[in-house]
Amino acid sequence: MAAAPALPQGFEPAKLYVWVKSLESKVNVLLREVDVLKNDFVKRNQDLRQDVRVLSEDLLEVKHQHEKMLQTMDLVIKELKQTAGVEEVQVLKKYVEFWNPMQFVTQQDLDRALESKPMGKN
After folding, report:
1. Hey, which of 1-10, 14-23, 57-66, 80-89 has the most confident mean pLDDT?
2. Lowest model confidence (mean pLDDT) among 15-19, 22-26, 67-71
3. DSSP code of 117?
4. What is the spatial distance between Cα 103 and Cα 96, in angstroms, rounded to a whole number?
5. Cβ neighbours of residue 84 under 8 Å, at least 6 residues apart?
6. By the 8 A CB rule, do 92 and 84 touch?
7. Are the CB atoms for 34 and 26 separated by under 8 Å?
8. Does residue 50 carry a pLDDT above 80?
């Protein structure tokens, strides 16, 4: 039988065991912390992706609304270009004032005037 190797003087297996158990405990704590950090990172990453997706959808909707607004503005501008300008309205106003349509005779007024007028000699 071979003799057991000689242990250095002052070496205590019990202290080594306590030291190894302490390291094992610290490693387990660090592994749990890393796991918590990893899970938190994954959750935040998912939340961030969802937020980016929502923002992208909102941006797309804003772009569509902007395009519709531009089309509406173009239509309004096109319609406004077809309306009468200030000078044209002033000319029409002068003609209306000149003609004074409130003084026009209606067909009924003319018929009444002709009926009430005695028939003269031809």
Report:
1. 57-66
2. 15-19
3. S
4. 11
5. 92
6. yes
7. no
8. yes
